[in-house]
Amino acid sequence: MAKKPSLGRQKIAIAKIPKKNHLQVTFSKRRSGLFKKASELCTLCGVEIGILVFSPANKVFSFGHPEVDSILDRFLASKGARSDGGGSTHNSGTRQLFEAHRSASIQELNMILTQVTEQLEVDKRRGEGLDKATRSGVGGGGHPRQFWWESPVEEMNGMEELEQLRSSLEELKMHIVGQSTRLMMDASRSFMAPFLGLEYTARNDHGDQFDRKPDLDQVNNAAALVQYLSFPQENGLF
Amino acid sequence: MAKKPSLGRQKIAIAKIPKKNHLQVTFSKRRSGLFKKASELCTLCGVEIGILVFSPANKVFSFGHPEVDSILDRFLASKGARSDGGGSTHNSGTRQLFEAHRSASIQELNMILTQVTEQLEVDKRRGEGLDKATRSGVGGGGHPRQFWWESPVEEMNGMEELEQLRSSLEELKMHIVGQSTRLMMDASRSFMAPFLGLEYTARNDHGDQFDRKPDLDQVNNAAALVQYLSFPQENGLF
DNA sequence: GCCGCTATATATAACGG
DNA sequence: TCCGTTATATATAGCGG
């Protein structure tokens, strides 16, 4: 007797869910889960958290502990507190933090390095293969080695590869910046709903605040969200 | 026999964790988890999410999808000046912010580069023997093309290969970005709360942004790196 | 869209190095 | 302090109502 109680939780790829009804269900469930996690984090560690979520239907869901407005005020307050450039503000404490940060980054980068090295090995192997072909005259045809990947190992010295990698990284950077701009435009056009003036308020068992606001004028309110979320970045600059 | 490899995950009450070190650990882990969940939700449902977290040490952590700082930059640029007066001044500030952003990214990339350099040194030495054997036959007199970007443009006709290479690098980039941001998520601990005015940005596999504030020294260093990295790109490859 | 259910996928508390 | 492991607590995908 075939029993089909349930397939149980199935693994899904982290990519946009195609089926809209599935997406909606997942959105609801995961949004709840996210807020719950945030709530627990707030309680467990006694920290303040604010979350804004713009649903597929352009509705705004928010979570705040103790409340969204407080989080907001706190940002605005710190923002106003710093009016100068703050260029000379880093003291010994700052340096300490910097060191902590630095070491942390290096740790991460070590792992990144592993990945990069692997890829590098692949690339190099390919280069060696091409090299062999070229030397034996297969691809010679009067065209000398013009590209680094065609170069035999002897030409592919550290410097060249390094430069090659540098270019790759440079490209990466440009990609990031470029995409940022594009996404920025998209965002300002479609999402960024209102953050201020939330209408519906509820609280969970921990006193956290959950707000939801039906679609509003996105573009206008985008400003508020952007400022909230971005405030730390402009701190001391404007 | 007596089993004691690990007690495994223990159930904990959702109440403020008394032990400070435990709290710190939990904060880091759960913050990472929270951001990851948010990231997944963004990708799965194609929604916008912003999260602000004030750490126990009053540091600010933020998560944003898709962009945060670029959105701000663009928004402020089109919106107009803030409190610093004229629009030109504002634009200057905006440019500063943007540059800072780029610098920060590059700074991180440079760290990667530095590490990779070491690896390359090893690889290079390993291939030096072959290098010597073939060098004399390359390019005849003068100095053979030391660097791949020195190749005459006219010889850059292997566009297909170029494209293939580009793809390869693209893949490499993805690895770098993916890994770095994934780790960055966890690394965004502490740091330069509302003191410094520059931000640090990374992205995870889903294009979400994680920000934190770096030390000014870092930024200065990054500035130098920008120059260093602003190397000849007119090779037609990137 | 909101439950409830089940079987799994994930997240993570304790520990050890 | 950070990282990796392990055993377990939680979160959730798919399905029904």
Automatic annotation (TrEMBL), chains A, B:
It is found in: Nucleus. One of its GO terms (cellular component) is nucleus. One of its GO terms (molecular function) is DNA-binding transcription factor activity, RNA polymerase II-specific. It comes from the Eukaryota. Its main location: nucleus. GO terms for biological process: positive regulation of transcription by RNA polymerase II. SUPFAM superfamilies: SRF-like (SSF55455). Keywords: DNA-binding, Nucleus, Transcription, Transcription regulation. SMART domains: MADS. Residues 7-67 form the MADS-box domain. This is MADS-box domain-containing protein. It comes from Trapa incisa.
